[in-house]
Each structure stands twice: as structure tokens, then as C-alpha cells.
Amino acid sequence: MVRNAWNGIVHGRTAALLGVIALGGSLAGCSGSDKPAKAAPPGTPGAAPSSASPPPTTHPFTGGRSGLKNPVLAVKIENTRNAMPQSGVSAADIVYIEQVEGGETRLMAVYSSKLPRRVGPVRSARISDMHILPQFGRPAFAFSGVQPKMKKYIRKSPVYDISQDNGGSSYVRWGPKPIPYNLYADPKDLLKQAPKATGPRDIGFRFGPAPAGGRPMKSFTARWPAVRMGFTWSAKQKRWLASYNGSPDVAREGGRLGGQTVVIQYAKTGRSQFRDVLGAYTPLIKTTGTGRALVLRDGKAYDAKWSRPSEEKGTTFTTADGKPMTFAPGQVWVALVNDGKPYMP
């Protein structure tokens, strides 16, 4: 049972785990091996820094100076109209937008420099998460469940599983919306159940003054088969304000969602051999290798290239002339868009 700490009502756990998690054999679109990457021991290339390593002077996720030693927490969050407004997204260091079944999208919010009071609606994990997360070392990973066949891969992957199955009273049913759009979690309570979660490490991001070049851009729309997410530059707020299918994407805490930097990362998206309960294929997003990107910062757009040699290592971004593509300090959104037309399996 899930204890409702906010309204004192006890609800039963979700009757069915929604969203099938897929492992794509040798199909195109799979990021590396189908098996989740294992954590590298300290001292090896791409491994989390050892305790003897000097602490970073700025946070590798935001370029700021707070939370330099805080553990890393990743949370899967619903990203459909039924879930809005979402809680806790505006406090994330990084927000990934990933395609799921039916051409919809889901968020994976990564926290370290600060934590919100509440985050959600929390939803189930996807195979693409297991290819993205190894670059963070061994983070805590919060989600509402997975397909039973996927559980053994979660256990073998370099994450601390603090899902609804393991999180106990950290998860509550809250608010007027029906299941599955009313599951929320307390990030501080979640991290208490993953005391050894790794701290922030270099994942390839570089922060600093804007590089030369770029072209003025007021807005950009990222497209998936069933979703459009727009980002409009606000000179007053000095960040990109998000919209969802043409409407302002508002945070439950107030104000618009959006970040100081938005990365449109074009990554090949294919289908796995598995389907969800409605028969739709689960997409697989290839986030290793190289590809093109569009980086939005300071009211400009920069053509860039992304590179990630393996799942244990981070993703670097370079400008057209091969120099590091610097991000504006603050929240980073990474929209994983198919390299080509919007992909519908």
C-alpha cells in the first residue's frame, strides 16, 4: 500500500504497471549493448571520481557553485496534458525529454545542486533511461515500475533502484487526478534510501561565455509524432520558456518551465522488439556515438556536434569549428529528437 502523507488517505498501489520497458535485440536505434552498462571501478576512464579526487569548483550539471557534493537523483516524470502542471521540474539541474510509445514523451529530471519538496507525477522507466544514466556514475533512480522482464536489468544496472516498489512511504498518492497521474515523491526521503548514490561528475557539459557566432532565434519547436514542445527566449528572464502543444508549460510551483540552455540533440530512434499493453512498440534512442545538435542560449542558436564514446562517459558538444560549445549557467534541457522525421514505430 502507498501511504498518503498529504491528505491522510491510503490508496492501493497501481493495479497495473503502465508502459512496457523494451530491450531491443540487434535492432537499429539501440544505444550500445542491450544489457545495461555496469559501473566502472574508481580510477578507470569514465568512472566516478574517487574520494581522493579534488572536488569541482563549479557544479558539472549547472555551472553553479551550490550542491557540489550532493548525490545525484534521477526521476521519471509524466509529460502529458493529464499530468500537468508537474511538480519539481523547475528545480532540476537537467531535464531530458524522451520519446515513448504512441509518439508521446516522458521526462527524466536529474537533481543534485538542489532538491524540490515534491516531484511528480512519477511514472515508469524506459529502456532509453538505462542507456543515459551510466554517465552519472551510480545515481539514485526513482520511477513507478517497469515491465517484469525488465527488473533483472534494473538490478544489474549502475543505479540505486528507489522505485515505488522499494521506496515505501517516500511515494504518496496526492491531488484530485486519477491513477496513474497522482503519484508523487519526496526527493529527500528517496535519497535516504540510497545513501551511497554517487555525487556529481563530469558528464561533458561546459559552461561559460557564449562562443562566437550563432544566429538570433526567438523560438524553436521540437517535434515528436504526438507532441510539440516549444522554447521561446525571454530576455527579461534570461531563459527559454517552455510550451506544450502550443500552450504555456507551467510549473505547479508557479511560473513557466524552461531552462537557460536548451539542447536539441538529434539521435537515431528505432523500435525495440517489445510492445506496451496497447501493442505499441517502445522506442529505443541511440545516445552513444556522434550526431548533430542545436544549442539554444542567450537568444541565439548554435549548430553543434555531440559525441559520446560509451555509456559510461558523458556527452560533449562542440561548435561547427570544433571548439567546446559552452552552455549558459543554469538549468539545461536536452530534447532527444529523432535524427530525421519524427519517428513513429
Automatic annotation (TrEMBL):
<dbReference type="Pfam" id="PF11258">
    <property type="entry name" value="DUF3048"/>
</dbReference>
<dbReference type="Pfam" id="PF17479">
    <property type="entry name" value="DUF3048_C"/>
</dbReference>
<dbReference type="InterPro" id="IPR035328">
    <property type="entry name" value="DUF3048_C"/>
</dbReference>
<protein>
    <submittedName>
        <fullName>DUF3048 domain-containing protein</fullName>
    </submittedName>
</protein>
<dbReference type="InterPro" id="IPR023158">
    <property type="entry name" value="YerB-like_sf"/>
</dbReference>
<dbReference type="InterPro" id="IPR021416">
    <property type="entry name" value="DUF3048_N"/>
</dbReference>
<feature type="compositionally biased region" description="Low complexity">
    <location>
        <begin position="31"/>
        <end position="51"/>
    </location>
</feature>
<feature type="region of interest" description="Disordered">
    <location>
        <begin position="31"/>
        <end position="67"/>
    </location>
</feature>
<feature type="domain" description="DUF3048">
    <location>
        <begin position="69"/>
        <end position="197"/>
    </location>
</feature>
<feature type="domain" description="DUF3048">
    <location>
        <begin position="229"/>
        <end position="334"/>
    </location>
</feature>
